[in-house]
């Protein structure tokens, strides 16, 4: 396999997709501009269904910021692809508009990619949920499709993704814009990248990730979650081949269907399928509790988030 052209001083294109969060976006931008990395960094802020803030643009010899609108399918996949197609640097990275990078993130990740001649790199995160702080770092030195088929690897967050751009586009392609509501686009992309080359893990916190007490965007978009998970299971046969992975995703889907409240029989059937596959997978039981009105889904989501976990 041809090795990606990674060096410790490569220019980097950073893609930040955003939608109506200007104050958080400015903090994200500042954390990227303030990187200790000596190479040139160009930030592309892609505004998705929101007004471009042209006043954010600037250029210095080592840092640049440009703005544009999502020119593809509305939503995060299309916005990420707009940035990917506008990128020209050897290395490309992603950051969500409500997350911030640790100062040495790029420096450490690109050094590791150079050392390992890897296609990509992810790092750990520190989750901020109200006044709580929880560190999540993938317990591996390499992300594999097999590992991802059984676990979301929450620590391998998209705001830590760095890739060698040319081999990424040649072997993996663009973010899947056919995903229902864009649900799980980051998981799908990492799964495909891990199948195409080495994605190494920086065993340290690289990014601070903000979680909201009311839950993430998808925490309450139950139809999107249910449809997106079904799509992902059909797209990636490796999940179906992994009993643990199928139990996990079916449990998630059962919880989404239960929370939706319009298909209780389907939710129960899916929950029991999850439990049969793995009696220790908790999501099926949580789904049944929601169907039986023993607990509200929002309470479960908040409780899990306090522990640095999602449903």
Protein topology:
Blueprint: E1 12-18, H1 22-33, E2 41-47, E3 58-59, E4 63-69, H2 76-86, E5 91-94, E6 100-101, H3 105-116, E7 120-129, E8 132-136, E9 142-143, H4 145-148, E10 162-164, H5 165-171, H6 185-196, E11 199-211, H7 222-235, H8 237-240, H9 243-260, H10 264-277, H11 282-291, H12 297-306
Parallel strand pairs: 1-2, 1-5, 2-4, 7-11
Antiparallel strand pairs: 3-4, 5-10, 6-11, 7-8, 7-10, 9-11
List keywords for this structure.
single chain; 311 residues; alpha/beta; 11-stranded mixed β-sheet; 20% strand; globular; disordered N terminus
Give a quick summary of the entry.
By secondary structure, this protein is of the alpha/beta class. It is built from 12 helices and 11 strands.
Write up this protein.
- This protein has 311 residues and is an alpha/beta fold.
- The protein has helices spanning 22-33, 76-86, 105-116, 145-148, 165-171, 185-196, 222-235, 237-240, 243-260, 264-277, 282-291, 297-306; strands at 12-18, 41-47, 58-59, 63-69, 91-94, 100-101, 120-129, 132-136, 142-143, 162-164, 199-211.
- Strands 1, 2, 3, 4, 5, 6, 7, 8, 9, 10 and 11 form an eleven-stranded mixed β-sheet that branches.
- Helix 7 (222-235) packs antiparallel against helix 9, helix 9 (243-260) packs antiparallel against helix 10 (264-277) and helix 9 (243-260) packs parallel to helix 11.
- It starts with 11 loop residues before the first strand and ends in a 5-residue tail after the last helix.
């Amino acid at each position: 396999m041809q090795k990606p052209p990674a060096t410790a001083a490569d220019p980097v294109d950073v893609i930040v997709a955003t939608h109506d969060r200007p104050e958080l976006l400015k903090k994200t931008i500042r954390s990227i501009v303030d990187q200790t990395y000596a190479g040139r960094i160009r930030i592309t802020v892609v505004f998705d269904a929101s007004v471009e803030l042209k006043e954010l643009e600037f250029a210095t010899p080592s840092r640049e910021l440009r703005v544009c609108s999502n020119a593809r399918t509305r939503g995060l996949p299309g916005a990420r692809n707009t940035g990917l197609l506008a990128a020209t640097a050897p290395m490309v990275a992603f950051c969500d508009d409500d997350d911030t990078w640790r100062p040495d993130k790029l420096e450490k990740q690109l050094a590791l990619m150079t050392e390992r001649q890897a296609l990509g790199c992810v790092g750990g995160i520190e989750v901020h949920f109200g006044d709580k702080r929880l560190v999540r770092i993938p317990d591996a030195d390499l992300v594999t499709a097999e590992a991802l088929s059984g676990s979301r690897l929450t620590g391998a967050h998209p705001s830590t993704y760095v890739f060698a751009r040319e081999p990424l586009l040649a072997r993996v392609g663009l973010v899947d814009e056919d995903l229902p509501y864009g649900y799980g686009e980051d998981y799908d992309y990492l799964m495909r990248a891990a199948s195409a080359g080495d994605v190494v893990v920086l065993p340290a916190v690289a990014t601070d990730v903000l979680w909201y007490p009311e839950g993430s965007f998808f925490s309450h978009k139950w139809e999107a979650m249910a449809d997106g998970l079904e799509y992902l299971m059909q797209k990636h046969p490796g999940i179906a081949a992994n009993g643990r992975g199928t139990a996990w995703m079916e449990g998630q889907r059962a919880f989404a269907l239960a929370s939706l409240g319009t298909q209780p029989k389907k939710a129960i059937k899916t929950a029991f399928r999850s439990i049969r596959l793995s009696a220790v997978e908790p999501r099926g039981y949580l789904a049944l509790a929601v169907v039986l009105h023993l607990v509200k889904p929002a309470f479960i989501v908040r409780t899990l988030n306090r522990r640095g976990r999602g449903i």
